[in-house]
Amino acid sequence: MRFLSECPWKRLQELRALIPNVPFQMLLRGANAVGYTNYPDNAVFKFCEVAKENGMDIFRVFDSLNYLPNMLLGMEAAGAAGGVVEAAISYTGDVSDPMRQKYSLDYYMNLADELVKAGTHILSIKDMAGLLKPEGSKLLVGTLRDRFPDVPIHVHTHDTAGAGVAAMLACAEAGADVVDVAVDSMAGMTSQPSMGAIVACTKGTKYDTGE
């Protein structure tokens, strides 16, 4: 809208008309909606309502600092609009390193407890800096799966450190239901891990994608 002078909903409407049977997902920065400043609560609620009306399905709600009140507002707004609420935990540090005390496994589990208590439909790990390593992936996802056996777990990472494929395979083995990947030509580095690599690595295993 700002740079292309487009109606912000037109492209979503056109995509939904062409792709009627695939769920669409978006990021919602809690009380910041899709901007970088706090908006009035009614503006966030109205945005989610109109987004849902125009074809959005899943709202991945996050706060870069894991500030719970911001996230709860976004979750409430997305849910009130009839969307699927995917509350995302922003990951940093290294849960497999006992020297890292601030962002420990307990920190993430306590946050997950609050998000599940608030009624999230899906629990997400948002590894925006590509810090998840295989050992940390197994520990974090495995502990979440044990505590919340019936809540879908969705893991998102960036392949910045080059360990994304290994980390996502470890997440799958630990019980994640969905991991984010990118088509090979657009994968790697600050994008998501390679879809082709994941497919190849799981071929012939119980995680075989069938491709």
UniProtKB/TrEMBL annotation:
Pfam families in alphabetical order: HMGL-like
Recorded superkingdom: Eukaryota
Domain Pyruvate carboxyltransferase: 1-211
Name the record gives this protein: Pyruvate carboxyltransferase domain-containing protein
Native source organism of the sequence: Xenotaenia resolanae
